Amino acid sequence: MTSTTEQFADVSATTLLRFATAGSVDDGKSTLVGRLLHDSKSVLTDQMEAVEAVSQARGQEAPDLALLTDGLRAEREQGITIDVAYRYFATARRRFILADTPGHVQYTRNMVTGASTADLAVVLVDARNGVIEQTRRHAAVAALLRVPHVVLAVNKMDLVGYQESVFAAIAEEFTAYASDLGVPEITAIPISALAGDNVVDPSANMDWYGGPTVLEHLETVPVSHDLTACPARFPVQYVIRPQSAEHPDYRGYAGQIASGVLRVGEAVTVLPSGRTSTVVGIDALGESVDIAWAPQSVTLRLADDIDISRGDLIAPSASAPATTQDVEATVCHVADQPLAVGARVLIKHTTRTVKAIVKEIPSRLTLDDLSQHPNPGQLVANDIGRVVVRTAEPLALDAYADSRRTGSFLLIDPADGTTLAAGMAGESFASKAQAGDQAAEADEEGWDF
Predict the structure, then answer these.
(1) Which residues, at least 6 apart from 174, have a Cβ–Cβ distance to it below 8 Å?
(2) Distance of CA 162 to the CA centre of its chain
(3) Residue 365 clears pLDDT 50, i.e. is over it
(4) 164-169 contacts: CB < 8 A, separation 24 or more?
(5) Mean pLDDT of the chain, nearest integer
(6) 3-class DSSP state for residue 4?
(7) Is the Cβ–Cβ distance between 271 and 396 less than 8 Å?
(8) N or C: which end of the chain has fewer CB within 10 A?
(9) How much of the chain exceeds pLDDT 70, in percent?
(10) Region 409-422: what's the mean pLDDT?
(11) What is the pLDDT of residues 152-172, one digit of tens each?
(12) H/E/C letters for each residue in 354-399?
């Protein structure tokens, strides 16, 4: 008979943790990731030999483990991370997908990319510098993206004499700040990525610390990927009409189930039209099935011939989301050009893209004290603020707090396709500003909705 411990080990060996690293420039993110990979024996021999060769050519006595993740030539030359570096590794207890995100304020937008699907974020702080503005920005992005677990890794403890008081002060300040943002769980760990203290192996230099190492915490933190607990959402990607001799009347709607469970015989509503029908067939991997769940890619067949196209959303009639043309959301502005009131944009939500106008920017978040700067008029690169967007056609949005997949969207420049902002519908840690009663001015190009 299998023991409870053995059953847990079997389950944990199959679980996957997606996590992202963030921190300011030179806080040691890439070194931490390199140390994790090296000390957990997740580096191939030829990779390590290449790192050793480059390090020796630079005159360094020890291998520079940051080179394991800084793959771009510009990154290696400047000693900074520019792009999001994804790494895949595994231990006996869990599999990992790691997103090593840039620390420079210019590339904060890439942290949004890396953390958008993360279950955990590791925020690094240089023990000599403490919590700085970029640390607050990364904490705000993690909270905004509803990352459920945050690890504060206070790095370079070797450079402050491994003093407990230094670590305690930084941990207290960051925990208070992140808690005010609504981060549900914060774990502080003192480390030295360069020396390997508390990364994979416990440190002999900090006997005052009795908590887990970084890897131990990553291996044991509880994660849930149960998308089936949410109401079913099926964004249509493609309509399949073979019209062949073998399938003369086949009409299927292909896509990936974003959340929930769909069953044959279930009553569904197609949004934004609001028309109803019944699921009469589900095709998955060339076979008909009675049930399908997120994140499976399937083709649905309905009882009625309804006008359905890419961008429509199919949901159970009992739990269908409301549609709206007035989207209130928090956005992280990622483009170089400002986002101003009155801007004409495209909004991309799941598989649907529609025209829209930015009607209001009620507030911008001030990172120092988490206050709201009212009516800033525009958002610039790396700003976080509230927006009200009026769309040309209705969208079926969930609140981001309920669904990270169907509650998120992108604002896009219609002129060149540049991504302007990443948006999270509904409430966030930012206080909801009162909507103004400003009258909309007509737009001669048909963007007034």
Answers:
(1) 123, 125, 131, 135, 139, 152, 186, 188
(2) 33
(3) yes
(4) 164/190, 164/206, 164/208, 164/209, 166/127, 167/127, 167/209, 169/130
(5) 83
(6) helix
(7) yes
(8) N
(9) 80
(10) 94
(11) 999 999 999 999 999 999 999
(12) EEEEEEEEEEEEECCCCEEEECCCEECCCCEEEEEEEEEEEECCCC
> What is the distance between the alpha carbons of residues 381 and 114, in angstroms, rounded to a whole number?
17
Rounded CA separation 421/408 (Å): 11
112's enclosing H/E stretch is: helix 108-115
For 58-97, b where at least 16 C-beta lie within 10 A, e where not — what string? eeeeebbbbbbbbeeeebeeeebbbbbbebebebebbebb
pLDDT at 80 over 70: no
Do the bridges between strand 120-126 and strand 149-155 make them parallel or antiparallel, or are there none, so unpaired? parallel
pTM recorded for the entire structure = 0.79
Does position 38 have pLDDT exceeding 80, yes or no? no
The radius of gyration of the chain's CA atoms, rounded to the nearest angstrom, is 24
Closest by alpha carbon to 386, among 338, 435, 348?
435
Q: How far apart are CA 418 and CA 334, in angstroms?
A: 10
Q: What is the mean pLDDT of residues 328-336?
A: 90
Assign residue 346 a region: left if phi > 0, alpha if psi is -120 to 50, beta otherwise?
beta
- The CA distance from 218 to 95, in Å, is 10
